Amino acid sequence: MNPLLQGLDPVAIHRVLATGQALEMHRPNQAANQLAPLLASHPDHPEVLRLHASLLSLRGEHKAALRDMRRALEQRPHEALYHNAFALCLAEAGELDLAIEALYRACALQPGFVLAWYNLGLFLMRAACFDDARIALRNAIELAPDYTAARAQYADLLRMDNFRDEAIAEYRKLLAEQPWAGMAWWGLAEIKTLPLGTADSDAIRRALAHPHASDGDRVAMGFALAKALDDQGRYAESLQALAAANELARRHRSWNASAFDATITSINAARCSANAGGDLGSEVIFIVGMPRSGSTLIEQMLASHSMVEGTAELADLPLVIGEASAHYKKPYPLWLADMSAEDCRHWGQRYLERTARWRKRRPISTDKLPNNWMHIGMIRAMLPGARIVISRRDALETCFSCYRQYFPGNDYTRTFADLASYWRSFDAAANHWARREPAHVYQHVYEDLIKDPATHIRQLLAFCRLPFEEACLRFHETKRSIGTPSAMQVREPLRANTARAPRYGECLDPLRRALDQR
Q1: So where are the chain's domains?
Q2: Which end of the chain is more exposed for a tag (fewer CB within 10 A), N or C?
Q3: Long-range pairs, 335-338, Cβ under 8 A, ≥24
Q4: What is the mean pLDDT for each group of 10 consecutive residues in the chain (518 residues)?
Q5: Whose CA is closest to 503, among 232, 196, 223, 235?
Q6: Which CATH code of 3.40.50.2300, 3.30.70.920, 3.20.20.30, 3.40.50.300 fits the domain covering 258-514?
Q7: CA nearest neighbour of 489 among 226, 267, 266, 192
Q8: What share of the chain is helix, strand, coil (3-state, %, to 5)?
Q9: Residue whose C-alpha is closest to residue 369's, from 349, 354, 385
Q10: Could you tell me if 16 and 37 are in contact, meaning their C-beta atoms sit under 8 angstroms apart?
């Protein structure tokens, strides 16, 4: 018997195993049904606590999840699996540094624990500790040479670190052994400067039919195939490949447009009238907007300044909102209108505490989570000294670029109708806040930048209250790791011919109609 299951009767063991399977398949309701009798009959058993913590974390109940995981660890402090589970709960709660500590502990307790090394590599990447991440991922690969996810992630890390040729070699090596590895194909496609030829598109078509390919592999390969066909000028075929990949993705995760619209309406109706006062948050520049609109380019230009630390797509603001919701015992945004100035200061300080590590080298940090556009009112209340840069690009180009991008979790990108609906919500919010708060909210237009880079980079720096530095004009020379799809592009000088929609002509008329452009 598995020693972790000691103290459980056969029926309970069956339920533990069934709960674990349901959690692995991301079926929280099924897991909860299996777990409920266990919580009644064995509420203090460490395996029951571990599974309950995982379920709570999946549901966003982070405080309760950490409580149960700590109770489990008290009983089994030397169990590496438990430290790994604790790390996952900590990471979901936004405690990245503590999660990394827990994973180092798991790896020390069980040096052959492949999953712990892999998770450690992922979290170190998220923390921008790229050298250490490389070591952790290499350890995982040495322990399990066929571990597809670790090998693809290692190649992704090389790409993010601008080791282009090394990344290509790693992807190709993995594909030679596992031609169905979807994330390796997509990793190659993400190297925008690498054209994929007919040999690649033919290989992807064969891999799509491979019996070892999962639906996840097929979705990633579908997007890679579309990129290859686009490189070859086969635009109608590329669009067909995109439609198939997006449709397959929708079978597993769909977008609830009406629920999203209701959320945005609720946020707009509950705007906070108080604010923290003073210049709290002046050390932060938020970059918000639609994905694929030039936000990584904005961050790269700002991160080229000697006073600015370019970070990543930080989850800290949503996590602070989650903490506030738990504190007020109300879902966001129902408590927003009730906040006092003192409340605003408290949550603003909480955000600054969470992000302080990004300002150890330089006094100002960016926060480039695109979806924060829907929380501009919250930012203005909590951090009135912060600057908010809205990244804007032509609606058709932005939406089509989102449709072409393999975006796990961004489910609104799967259909033209959902993309257009999402765009309209963003557009309305961006225009509202730019008109209302011009001193703190600035719309940076990609097409304007392309026409006159020097002028618009100077305007961006002036809005952010930064003295002009020549390095910002030479942003493509700045050495830093970049974890977004635009990593390779922002390391090149600006190009004027980036518009892609004209190549597809009338094939994109359905998207134009969804955007009310025809």
Answers
A1: 146-252, 258-514
A2: N
A3: 336/267, 336/270, 336/271, 336/272, 336/377, 336/378, 336/381, 337/270, 337/271, 337/272, 337/273
A4: 85 91 88 92 94 92 94 96 96 90 98 97 88 95 95 92 91 96 95 93 97 96 98 97 96 90 89 88 98 93 96 89 90 91 96 94 96 96 97 97 92 96 95 95 96 96 97 86 55 74 94 90
A5: 235
A6: 3.40.50.300
A7: 192
A8: 65, 5, 30
A9: 354
A10: no
Long-range contacts of 20-28 (CB under 8 A, 24+ apart): 20/51, 23/51, 23/54, 23/55, 23/58, 26/58, 28/55, 28/58, 28/59
Is residue 292 within 8 A of residue 190, CB to CB? The reply is no
Query: How is residue 389 annotated by DSSP?
Result: E
Alpha-carbon separation of residue 472 from 26, 366, 453, 462, 477 (angstroms): 44, 15, 10, 12, 9
How many C-beta atoms lie closer than 10 Å to residue 65's C-beta?
A: 25
**How is residue 364 annotated by DSSP?**
E
Q: Which residues pair with 15 in a beta bridge?
A: none
In the block, residue with structure tokens 């300080």: 349
Tokens of 418: 């959902």
* Residue 292 backbone zone (phi > 0: left; psi -120 to 50: alpha; other: beta): left
- What CA–CA distance (Å, rounded) separates 233 from 477? 30
**pTM: predicted TM-score of the whole model, two decimal places:** 0.87
Superfamily of domain 146-252: Tetratricopeptide repeat domain (1.25.40.10)
Tell me the backbone φ, ψ of residue 392, rounded to 5 degrees. Answer: -125, 145
